[in-house]
Design a protein that fits this description.
With 69 residues, the protein is mainly β. It is built from no helices and 3 strands. The chain has one domain. The protein is globular. The mean pLDDT is 89. The structure holds zinc ion.
């Protein structure tokens, strides 16, 4: 059985880093938790047939960038 695997970009609410998150679509629902690759806070968590596995920073220059305020 072929499982669909790909990546999605998710922006961390805590540090603003752009994470490239790998996921696999499974037929069964399962719990997942993925930490931000930049700050270690929880980036994604929940339960579903799309299982998020791991994260990596997409753009290192974004990490720690000034927020303007
Ligand atoms: Zn973060």
């Amino acid at each position: 059985m072929a499982l669909f695997q790909s990546t999605e970009d998710h922006i961390c609410d805590d540090c603003g880093a752009v994470n490239v998150v790998s996921f696999t679509d499974y037929p069964d629902r399962d719990r997942y938790t993925v930490d931000c690759a930049g700050c270690g806070q929880v980036l994604l968590s929940g339960k579903g047939s799309r299982f998020y596995e791991s994260s990596a920073l997409k753009d290192h220059s974004k990490k720690g960038a000034p927020q303007g305020e």
